[in-house]
Design goal:
The protein is of the alpha+beta class and 235 residues long. The chain has helices spanning 49-56, 95-102, 107-110, 118-128, 212-215, 218-234; strands at residues 2-6, 11-16, 20-26, 33-39, 66-68, 74-81, 140-142, 146-148, 154-156, 166-171, 175-180, 197-203. The chain has one domain (2-234). Helices cover 22% and strands 27% of the residues. The radius of gyration is 17 Å and the shape is globular. Residues 5-176 form the DUF1989 domain. This is DUF1989 domain-containing protein.
Length: 235
C-alpha cells in the first residue's frame, strides 16, 4: 500500500488507520528508529511508557507486547519481531548531545548534510500536526537494546540490530505516528550512525480474543477491551 525509505537523520509523520500494519526493516547494521504515537482523534491520549512497561512487567518490547495510551487503550501491537528486544527507556537524542558527541554542524554551513537530533525532528513533526514541544513524551527506540547493569546503569548493546532485521506494528486505533531516524542517546559511539530504515504500510486482519497479543498477558486483554469499547462508541 505504501513504502518509503527513511534515510539517516530523516523524520516522518502520518496518521496510520486502525486495521493497517507498519513494518520497519533495517537496511544496515546498528539501526535505531525513534517513535512517538498519539490517538489521532484525541492527541491528549498518547503513548504512555510507564503504563506500557508496568502493565506488561517488562523493560523491553517485542512480539506480543502492546503500546498503551494514557487511557489504558492499545494504540498498536507488536505482531512480528526478528530481534526480541526494542528499547522503551533510552529516550531521544538532543541537539546538545549530537553537537558534543559527533561534532557541531548547522544547516547554514552544510545544508542538508547537517547532523539532526531526535528532539528537533520530533518537534518539527509535532508542529506540522498541530502539536508543540510540550507534547513530547517518552519514545520507543526500535532496533536498540538497553539492559540494566548490576549497579543500575543503562548498558547500550552496540550492533544489536543487523541488516534485514524487522519489526511490525498493527494499529489498533487511528494513530499519529512520528518517526526520527537518529541515534539512540545511550549509543556513545564517535560516528553518527548512517543506517537507512524501510517503512512499509499494508492492510492486516483485526485481532479477536484468541490473538497472540491479546492473550500475551491478562493486562493486554483488558487494554484491548478498553479499545474495543472505545471504537464501539465512536464509530
Amino acid at each position: 500500500m505504501f513504502e518509503t525509505i527513511l534515510e539517516p537523520g530523516a523524520k516522518w509523520s502520518n496518521v496510520i488507520a486502525k486495521g493497517k500494519a507498519v513494518r520497519f526493516t533495517a537496511l544496515g547494521d546498528g539501526a535505531n528508529l525513534s517513535a512517538l504515537l498519539y490517538n489521532s482523534r484525541n492527541t491528549t491520549d498518547r503513548y504512555n511508557m510507564p503504563d506500557t512497561l508496568k502493565a506488561q512487567h517488562t523493560s523491553k518490547l517485542t512480539k506480543g507486547n502492546v503500546l498503551m495510551s494514557d487511557n489504558g487503550r492499545v494504540l498498536s501491537s507488536i505482531v512480528e519481531d526478528s530481534l526480541g528486544w526494542h528499547d522503551p527507556v533510552g529516550g531521544s537524542i538532543s541537539r546538545g548531545q549530537v553537537d558534543e558527541q559527533f561534532g557541531k554542524t548547522s544547516f547554514q554551513e552544510v545544508l542538508n548534510d547537517y547532523l539532526r537530533s531526535g528532539d528537533e525532528n520530533f518537534i518539527k513533526e509535532l508542529v506540522r500536526n498541530g502539536l508543540t514541544m510540550r507534547d513530547i513524551v517518552p519514545n520507543v527506540n526500535f532496533f536498540s537494546k538497553i539492559a540494566a547493569a548490576p549497579d543500575g546503569s543503562m548498558q547500550f548493546e552496540k550492533g544489536h540490530a543487523k541488516e534485514g532485521d524487522s519489526v511490525t506494528l498493527r494499529m489498533e486505533m487511528d494513530t499519529l505516528l512520528i518517526l526520527s531516524n537518529t541515534p539512540n542517546p545511550q549509543d556513545h559511539g564517535l560516528s553518527y550512525p548512517s543506517v537507512p530504515v524501510k517503512l512499509e504500510v499494508f492492510d492486516t486482519q483485526a485481532p479477536d480474543e484468541t490473538d497472540y497479543c491479546v492473550t500475551f498477558r491478562p493486562e493486554n486483554k483488558r487494554a484491548f477491551e478498553n479499545t474495543w469499547n472505545y471504537h464501539a462508541l465512536t464509530v
